[in-house]
TrEMBL record:
<keyword id="KW-0119">Carbohydrate metabolism</keyword>
<keyword id="KW-0858">Xylan degradation</keyword>
<dbReference type="Pfam" id="PF03648">
    <property type="entry name" value="Glyco_hydro_67N"/>
</dbReference>
<feature type="signal peptide">
    <location>
        <begin position="1"/>
        <end position="19"/>
    </location>
</feature>
<keyword id="KW-0732">Signal</keyword>
<dbReference type="InterPro" id="IPR037054">
    <property type="entry name" value="A-glucoronidase_C_sf"/>
</dbReference>
<dbReference type="InterPro" id="IPR011099">
    <property type="entry name" value="Glyco_hydro_67_C"/>
</dbReference>
<dbReference type="Pfam" id="PF07488">
    <property type="entry name" value="Glyco_hydro_67M"/>
</dbReference>
<dbReference type="InterPro" id="IPR005154">
    <property type="entry name" value="Glyco_hydro_67_aGlcAse_N"/>
</dbReference>
<dbReference type="InterPro" id="IPR011395">
    <property type="entry name" value="Glyco_hydro_67_aGlcAse"/>
</dbReference>
<keyword id="KW-0624">Polysaccharide degradation</keyword>
<dbReference type="Pfam" id="PF07477">
    <property type="entry name" value="Glyco_hydro_67C"/>
</dbReference>
<dbReference type="InterPro" id="IPR029018">
    <property type="entry name" value="Hex-like_dom2"/>
</dbReference>
<protein>
    <recommendedName>
        <fullName>Xylan alpha-1,2-glucuronidase</fullName>
        <ecNumber>3.2.1.131</ecNumber>
    </recommendedName>
</protein>
<keyword id="KW-0326">Glycosidase</keyword>
<comment type="similarity">
    <text>Belongs to the glycosyl hydrolase 67 family.</text>
</comment>
<feature type="domain" description="Glycosyl hydrolase family 67 C-terminal">
    <location>
        <begin position="470"/>
        <end position="693"/>
    </location>
</feature>
Amino acid sequence: MKYLLILFLSISVASSARANDGYGLWLDYSPVENSQLKQDVSQLFTGFYFFGKSPTYEIIRDELEVAGQKMLGSSPVFSTERLAQTQVWLGTRDELSQVLGLQTQAQIRELGEDGYWRGPIVFQGKTYYAIIGNRSIGVLYGVFDWLRSIQTDTFDPKTENSESPKVKLRMLNHWDNLDGTVERGYAGFSIWNWHKLPGYIDRRYIDYARANASLGINAVSLTNVNANARILTTDFMKKARVLADLFRPYGIRVFLTARFSAPIEIGGLKTADPLDPGVIDFWKKKTDEMYSFIPDFGGYLVKANSEGQPGPHEYGRDHAQGANVLADALAPHGGVVIWRAFVYSHELDEDRHKHANLEFGPLDGKFRENLIIQVKNGAIDFMPREPFHPLFGAMPKTNLGMEFQITQEYLGQATQLVYLAPMWEEVFGSKTYRPIPASRVGGIVDGTDSGQKLTLVAGVSNIGTDRNWTGHMMAQSNWYAFGRLAWNPDLSSEEIADEWVKMTFGQDPKAFAAIKEMLLESREAAVNYMMPLGLHHIMGWDHHYGPGPWVTGGRPDWTAPYYHQADSLGIGFDRTASGSDALGQYAPEIVKAWSDPTQIPEKYLLWFHHLPWDFELHSGRTLWDEIGLHYDTGVKTARKMEETWNSLESEIDPERFEHVRQLLAIQVQEAEWWRNACLLYFQTFAKRPFPAEIEQPTGDLEDYKKRSFPTAPGIKPKW
Ligand code: GCW
């Protein structure tokens, strides 16, 4: 009996080792199938030589070991001497200077601190493959890029490739609370185990850093922007130091969120007035202390005077006065303040859309050099589709960074597959017409159009303790896409999908084509079944799960009718000059085109216009019919995604297949729920039949309204 038990245990251990639970992310390295490629790469794996020493090179060795085993079935060979039979040379430009031509050296220098060059170099008549950076981190990025090219079957040993990131700070923002919960987190709890730190190092910290480094993510803010001042106490600094030490060789700097009232809460002061000498001194000393633990500490991320968070307004000071005090404390150490522009009034705004520009616009030019204003992609709040935030282009003398939300608060949480790269691509590609006529959001953020040197793309993390990291394993694609776009905002969502699918599922052509198509259509599907044609903020109360166009109570701008404005005459928020004139905050070219409901792209129609139910759209249909059609199309695409996936059963490993299969079934139900509930609700105003061409909504509106979700994850902390 005892033996049987042991046998059983060892079988189940062995089989669970083979099962794919998604923990390996896009770094699980499937075997190389292309025989020419396999031959080329196998040859290269017989001789790696590092020109220098660094903890980062140890990481590279480990990565090559894993990659060699998994892709080629054998370990790489490392040489301690630069022998003729070595194949791949790795190191920094300085370390390789003896063997590099002057021109190559100059070319590499141009690539800056995070760039890399990889390609063939000829030395004493023999050709080697070299991966070179200006710093060891560049070498690491180059190696990851090289491995990616092998996994995506694009590697050519004869071709030179060089890259440098277009954005300086490529950053994850964790909304992780010190009690282990994650605000808007749908993948379990926080991966930071503050209780066991600093003594215990969870293996996950290292795997997390590795995954980020593979994308070029180089900054992480560990804690929620709804901040707890305790993170700035000495005890927590000691814990954060452990993470910073672990992340350093991966090129990642740690940031923390600073609560504006920390001088009172942990400093024993009576005020947090940024002009008070005691407060200035508090921030200076706190910051000096922080650097004594973390010498490359990144800086502070701050949410102030927003949704009840304390800030400079309490003392009659503006955002610049508040932010600059922190910036001055960080400046001598090379740190940066990231100050969020997500603000809206404690009192009710006329239109919340306008608030950030009204508060920040007049402060243009007043913020320090080592300070960057982090602006959400849209002016309301990470909706499934928003027009770009009008601050982009409106503050030419201020560093502006982008904040995306990777965690799917408003895009299906962790029960839905929604690939977000098309949304981010749309935002970066949006024309702003300022500061120069050809400006796009991406060009402002990466400095091309704005000229700013300090650049930032931040994403609110979707990572948690779930074994597959992101709750829905397909949401790994969003972590991946975020990192790739932060590195280069000009990449297309399609290129990124190509890479991710190949790296995650291997190269089976049927599975590749099918999964890629599912990813690429998923975001538009979600917009359609949730909030089409510019509708926004009509989700469930507080937990934000599911539809809630009927949600009222509390402050009006937290309710749905404030945004959809449906009545017997029509629907939509008039933000033109005849309404709130939020549109007037954009460049004149946009104001002109979008003021006209027949000119504005229909995807933004109801964001800016209140229109009669019978208003005729480009299709010739009435607004009412078109709304119905969009909702229905969304549902049908969700069903198609489900069918596509189900046809892949023999191509995908059972564990991942089943995981995604179940979630897609839920997604279809949720899409139907959104469509039914929203259409039945809007029909109470429109008082028209549903268009005949759509599947007729079913269910009872009153039942939909009564649904409650006490177990929905990710709700705000109660402290
Ligand atoms: O979208 C809202 C979220 C809040 C979040 C806030 C913000 C951290 O519902 O949970 O708070 O945005 O971005 O500050």
